[in-house]
Amino acid sequence: MPSHPDFALWIITVVMEAFVCGLILLRGRLRRYRMLACYFGGCVLVESVQVMIFLHHGSGSMDYLYLYYYADSLLGLILYFAVVEHFGRVCDSSAERRYVRVGSFLLAVCVGIFCCVLVARSPASIINRLVAEYSQYLFYATAALGLGMFVTSLRNRRVLLHDRLLAFVFASYLALMPWQYLLRRLYPGFSSIIYTHALVWMLLLLGVAYIFSDPATGQDEPHIFL
User: Fold this and answer.
1) DSSP annotation string for 10-56
2) How many CA atoms lie within 13 A of 6 on its CB side?
């Protein structure tokens, strides 16, 4: 069973994810930030189902493990598409947007081919290992795209402040996460490092919530627009 602090942290995280998803909807930004809303909405759904399975079957059950790895891979893919979507938004011209779409597609395919070659000699559970490896390396590709997205947003002066701030928040999150994984590998017995992932994730949620509340312009009015 999870401890009371862990359960409280999960409750706060899910509420924040639902709040950010609802904020995108209520501010009338769903059409423009569709993949971003799908990502945070998917996080709420997956984490809720994960906790239900954890409470009923435990973390060692096959149902929990399958949901953990496959759902994490699916969310990673949606995050990749959300970054690609925003990358195209901060580009200066339609030609640059076309290059981003084609380049991101080729990058995702190359990552998949690399993972297939990497696990080709695996004696068993090749599908499970392929999903896990693809999720991991796709995140590194997403981090690289996030950095390029932020640099592009700085270079293009016509980008709205709202979109530039969103590029900065996501680039910061994607840059901090590999360091968090590295710390967990270097210090596996240091329990406090486990909560660094939750801290970085909460910073992302707070940053996105702050941006979609539109403090810079205040031009949006609360409404639902699909």
Assistant:
1) HHHHHHHHHHHHHHHHHBT-TTTTHHHHHHHHHHHHHHHHHHHHHHH
2) 8
Q: Which of 194, 143, 152, 151 is nearest to 170 (CA)?
A: 143
Cα separations (Å) of 193 from 6, 143, 196, 199?
14, 21, 5, 10
What one-letter code names the amino acid at 50? Q
pLDDT tens-digit readout, 66-103:
777 788 889 999 999 999 999 999 988 888 889 999 99
For 196, residues 6+ apart whose C-beta sits below 8 A from its C-beta are: 180, 183, 184
Tokens of 2: 């999870």
CA 173/CA 139 separation, integer angstroms: 11
The pair of three-digit structure tokens given for residue 206, joined into one six-digit string: 């707070």
Residues 6+ apart with CB under 8 A from 187: 193
Kindly report the pTM of this predicted structure. 0.86
Q: Where are the domains of the chain?
A: 13-212
Please give the single-letter amino acid code of residue 34.
Answer: R
